[in-house]
Design goal:
Blueprint lengths: L2 H10 L17 H4 L4 H7 L3 E7 L6 H6 L19 E8 L3 E5 H4 L4 E5 L5 E3 L1 E6 L4 E5 L23 E6 L7 E12 L10 E4 L11 E4 L4 E8 L10 E5 H8 L16 E5 L2 H7 L7 E6 L4 H5 L6 E5 L2 E2 L3 H9 L6 E8 L2 E8 L12 E2 L10 E4 L2 H7 L7 E5 L14 E5 L2 E2 L3 H7 L7 E7 L2 E7 L1
Antiparallel strand pairs: 1-2, 1-4, 2-3, 3-7, 4-5, 6-7, 8-9, 8-11, 9-10, 10-13, 11-12, 12-13, 14-15, 15-16, 16-17, 16-18, 18-19, 20-21, 21-22, 22-23, 23-24, 23-25, 25-26
Length: 459
């Protein structure tokens, strides 16, 4: 640790006008100048492990990097002594439960955990969740209790808090870097679905993926996941998945590798802008403005209406659309939450039952046999459950799941939603199957793709 750097941090932390409740001060003795993070590191570092994986297809560093879902700007693990991918992980309970990034263990044929004391254990993959980019591993230590890091409540973090990043960058061995929380609720695309990250300037490099972001009280603030870099090295912009999301993947699921089910709001909306805040009578832009509510969905049953603004969930503020998605992702299905909303210039509360998205109608995955350019295409009925899996906002209609290579398929793509065919509206897969043998060329289809309505034709 560079002690002059620590002194600078302490000086910068001094408030302009100190209050009686604020104990921070400029160091006043030689002992205070020599303050060190070493006691915290001694407690926290043994809970951070190295994660080595083998896959049948690995061919070196390029394979490890290519597997990263955000390859262009965010860099994943580098190489290890086995010639395959290397990342970090964090022990979160004394019984050997470890959390890491899903992309660290993706497609792994075997996973080896190396503790800080260099002991090695074969790990079992308990749960992988690509929506959060988190995975849960388990090692068997024969009943020995391991050092672990308790989770930090995300809402207890503040911008400016000092944090340490612990991991294994570039495979050089366990490394500790220091910095501060640079931002909270940072929306970053291309990493996971919930886009609500802790940003830090603590140095994070390839190999730090899955490592710990630790607060000064020795708790796990987040799992270090990505960095922004044009050249692959740290430039002081790193991102960690917050503790509340980590907690959500530690809850029991139906079985190994089963997808985690999260609550369904049953409403769509958009972030409140400065302009809409003025029109709504809000003091500042905050929350999600509801545009549409699904009939008989959880939001509708709770009494949420179009035009309402969701400002909080269980008393925790919602900054924008991503913030509401994050809050719901951290809540367990089967419980009840309290929505703080703004309606017609007044605040009010609604109780909402947290339900899983329903499989209604049944998806009825079908490969079409007839119908000219539609032959061989696989389609399904959209439902809230399937829409949640496919990460689309539309919850009704027919969606394309697969388009075979070769042949003329009207330039259809996976994810296209079929709205009508030759002027006939398509409500479900059964109706589409009934229509296809009764229609003939020329074929005309209306589809929805990435929120746009397109018209396709084929002879």
């Amino acid at each position: 640790m560079n002690r002059p750097s620590l002194l600078l941090v302490l000086i910068l932390a001094l408030p302009v006008a100190a209050s009686a409740a604020d104990s921070r001060a400029v160091p006043s003795s030689a002992q205070q100048v020599q303050l060190s993070y070493a006691p915290l590191v001694r407690r926290a570092a043994p809970a951070v492990v190295n994660v080595y994986t083998r896959t049948a297809s690995d061919v070196g560093a390029s394979a490890a990097v290519r597997r990263d879902p955000a390859y262009r700007r965010f860099f994943a693990p580098g190489e290890d002594r086995l010639g395959h991918s290397l990342g970090s992980g964090v022990i979160v309970d004394p019984n050997g439960t470890i959390v890491t990034n899903q992309h660290v263990v993706q497609d792994a044929g075997s996973i080896v955990i190396v503790l800080s004391d260099r002991r090695e254990f074969q790990a079992e993959l308990v749960r992988a969740d690509d929506r959060t980019d988190l995975a849960v591993l388990k090692i068997n230590t024969g009943g020995e209790a391991l050092p672990f890091l308790p989770l930090k409540d995300t809402d207890d973090l503040e911008v400016g808090d000092i944090v340490l990043a612990i991991g294994n960058p570039f495979g050089v061995g366990q490394t500790v870097t220091s910095g501060i929380v640079s931002a909270l609720g940072r929306s970053v695309d291309g990493i996971n679905d919930y886009r609500s990250f802790i940003q830090t300037d603590a140095a994070i490099n390839p190999g730090n993926s899955g490592g710990a972001l630790v607060t000064l009280d020795g708790k796990l603030a987040g799992i270090n996941t990505a960095l922004y870099s044009e050249g692959g090295g740290s430039v002081g912009i790193g991102f960690a998945i917050p503790g509340d999301l980590i907690r959500s993947v530690l809850t029991p699921s139906e079985g190994a590798n089963h997808r985690i089910v999260r609550p369904w709001l049953g409403a769509t909306g958009r972030s409140v802008t400065a302009g809409s805040a003025r029109k709504l009578g809000l003091s500042h832009p905050s929350g999600m403005l509801i545009d549409d509510v699904v009939p008989q969905g959880p939001a509708a049953i709770a009494g949420l209406r179009p035009g309402d603004v969701v400002l909080s969930v269980d008393g925790r503020s919602v900054a924008d659309e991503d913030g509401l998605r994050f809050r719901f992702a951290t809540l367990p299905v089967g419980t009840t939450a309290k929505l703080g909303i703004w309606r017609a210039g007044e605040p009010m509360d609604l109780d909402i039952r947290l339900l899983a998205p329903p499989e209604t109608p049944p998806r009825k995955v079908t490969q079409l046999k007839a119908g000219g350019p539609f032959a061989g295409i696989t389609v399904a009925n959209l439902s809230p459950a399937l829409a949640d899996e496919l990460r689309t906002d539309d919850i009704a209609g027919v969606i394309v799941l697969d388009v075979p290579r070769g042949g003329a398929h009207m330039r259809l793509l996976v994810g296209d939603e079929l709205l009508d065919l030759n002027g006939q509206a398509i409500g479900d897969v059964g109706q589409l199957q009934w229509l296809l043998p009764r229609l003939a060329a020329p074929w005309r289809a209306t589809i929805r793709r990435d929120g746009r309505t397109l018209h396709l034709a084929a002879n």
